[in-house]
Write a structure and sequence with these properties.
seven-stranded mixed β-sheet, binds 5-O-phosphono-beta-D-ribofuranose, globular, two-stranded parallel ribbon, alpha+beta, about 280 residues, Nucleoside Triphosphate Pyrophosphohydrolase, single chain, about 25% strand, binds magnesium ion
């Protein structure tokens, strides 16, 4: 697993809490560090116990089953068995400078899904555009601007308890990039296009830990990122992109190494470019 970097940044998102500074050589739990005194922080929105959040571990009635499917809540990690200490899960990527859950609802892994929707960039005549530097064709993907931090990202989201990941991928894309929550229902033609796009077998891109700025020592993001590609461009050409839910903007973005994106999203986009032998 790659060492995390964004999970070490301060202040913690949506707060003025500064993490206990963790130098890169002290991230690993295998390095003894008795002086380590991480700050405790769980956001008020999580402590209010919305339906998507666990109770505090001190709650006598709450006995989470870690490293297993706990009722409908998936507490298994995509990274294998994680360590628990006195009933508290430990971030498999190492120290973050914060204990508690921060903005994350679940103790342990918080599972998300990231739909990477791509097409070839084309000129006015419909010809594929090639990058003059690499000589390779340019891919485009549907990106959203996150309302929480203003960064551009893949329109991903959390897998609901019991939800199939394939359903999350489609639901999150529709909510964030097509504004489905605010619409009565799409026109038949749009519905058909979405159906065709998501009934394709997606290309697996990445499964595992995400270097998300919300991660803590006890709660962290994991994702399954997949690619749905529109080779001809016919399917997505007329799909009406409209930002919704936690997305403030949505647009097609050219895939290249200058894409600076939320969490580890540029790594995922790079993998997609490689799979299609596209410009990076
Ligand atoms: C990232 O957070 C994942 O890769 C996914 O894109 C996202 C899910 O969280 P929300 O968009 O629901 O905040 O770690
Ligand atoms: Mg969402
Ligand atoms: Mg989201």
């Amino acid at each position: 697993m790659a060492a995390h970097v964004k999970a070490l940044t301060s202040p913690y998102p949506g707060s003025q809490v500064n993490r206990w500074p963790v130098p890169s050589e002290k991230v690993s739990w295998s390095i003894e560090w008795p002086e380590y005194k991480p700050v405790e922080y769980t956001a008020p929105s999580v402590l209010a116990q919305p339906p998507w959040a666990d109770p505090p571990l001190s709650d006598g009635k709450f006995s989470p089953q870690f490293n297993t499917l706990d009722g409908k809540v998936q507490r298994e990690s995509l990274e294998g068995t994680y360590h628990t200490e006195n009933g508290t899960p430990r971030n498999p990527a190492g120290r973050t400078g914060i204990i508690g859950r921060g903005l994350l609802g679940r103790w342990g892994p918080n599972h998300a899904a990231d739909p990477i929707i791509t097409r070839w960039k084309r000129d006015a005549a419909g010809q594929r555009v090639t990058d003059p530097g690499s000589g390779k064709p340019v891919l485009q993907f549907v990106a959203i601007e996150r309302k929480d931090c203003g960064q551009w990202a893949i329109p991903g989201g959390m897998v609901d308890p019991g939800e199939l990941v394939t359903a999350t991928l489609r639901r999150e894309f529709c909510e964030e990039a097509l504004n489905s929550l605010e619409k009565e229902g799409d026109e038949k033609e749009t519905e058909d296009k979405i159906q065709t796009l998501f009934s394709q077998k997606p290309l697996p891109v990445y499964k595992g830990y995400v270097d998300d700025p919300r991660n803590t020592d006890n709660s962290w993001m994991e994702t399954q990122a997949v690619n749905y590609h529109d080779e001809t461009g016919d399917l997505l050409d007329l799909l009406p992109l409209q930002a919704g839910d936690d997305a403030g903007k949505v647009q097609w973005v050219d895939v290249s190494s200058s894409c600076s994106l939320y969490a580890s999203h540029s790594n995922f986009i790079k993998l997609v470019a490689e799979k299609h032998d596209a410009n990076w």
